[in-house]
Design brief:
alpha/beta; Rossmann fold; 2 domains; 9 helices
């Protein structure tokens, strides 16, 4: 059986806290000339570009491609400044799990609201970016479902095959809904913005607190 596993990033691979998105916030503050560009904006499971547009609206600014391009330059500058800091840290036991999984199942991908450049900096910090040669990112679409559709299209093109089984691993209710959208199984991890009870209400295929809780035969089961 051919299997493709998608991972979310923040709250799943990366520990999510108040510092996780500081480079994004600082870049946006600099672009808009304010100190509170992200106040009142919920970023959980959203496209970074969608968040950008909401931040502009709050400051009575109109979106333009020129403004977006200017932001991307500022964002990369901030990512570079933060890359030696500890703002991006492993969530639970994500690193060992990804390394073990990729040694037997090389068909991994990402579904994330992160821009691809942010995803690269974050996962390079963890040393696991090389395990994700493709993915759907925040610049691919404004919606999670759209990002997921693009992620699947890109994975099929990159790996040169279709897949009998899709699995999404994520920490939010939207990850569960996205799995249903793609016809995928879903593993919810309780380390993000939604509680275990909230996740259970949407009946994911499995709920874990860390990756080590997955059954010892989980990887073998992928090929059945």
């Amino acid at each position: 059986m051919s299997t493709l596993i998608f991972f979310d990033i923040n709250g799943t691979l990366i520990r999510r806290d108040a510092r996780t998105d500081l480079p994004y916030t600082y870049a946006l503050n600099k672009l808009l000339g304010v100190e509170n560009s992200m106040d009142g904006i919920n970023t959980s499971a959203r496209s970074d570009k969608d968040v950008f547009m909401e931040a502009l609206e709050k400051q009575d600014r109109q979106f333009s491609e020129a403004l977006w391009s200017e932001f991307l330059v500022l964002y990369q500058e901030q990512l570079e400044q933060f890359k030696s800091s500890d703002v991006w840290r492993e969530n639970a036991d994500a690193i060992s799990f990804v390394e073990k999984l990729s040694s037997v199942l090389p068909t991994l991908s990402l579904i994330t609201g992160e821009l691809s450049i942010g995803a690269q900096y974050k996962l390079e910090k963890l040393g696991i970016w090389n395990h994700f040669p493709t993915g759907g990112f925040g610049e691919d679409d404004l919606t999670r479902f759209g990002i997921a559709d693009r992620a699947l299209e890109k994975a099929i093109a990159h790996y040169g095959q279709t897949f009998d089984q899709l699995i999404i691993i994520g920490d939010t209710l939207l990850d569960i809904k996205t799995a249903r959208h793609l016809g995928a199984k879903v593993i919810s991890i309780t380390t993000g913005s939604n509680t275990k009870e909230e996740l259970q209400a949407l009946s994911p295929d499995m709920i874990i607190d860390c990756f080590d809780e997955l059954p010892n035969n989980f990887i073998n089961q992928l090929f059945l």
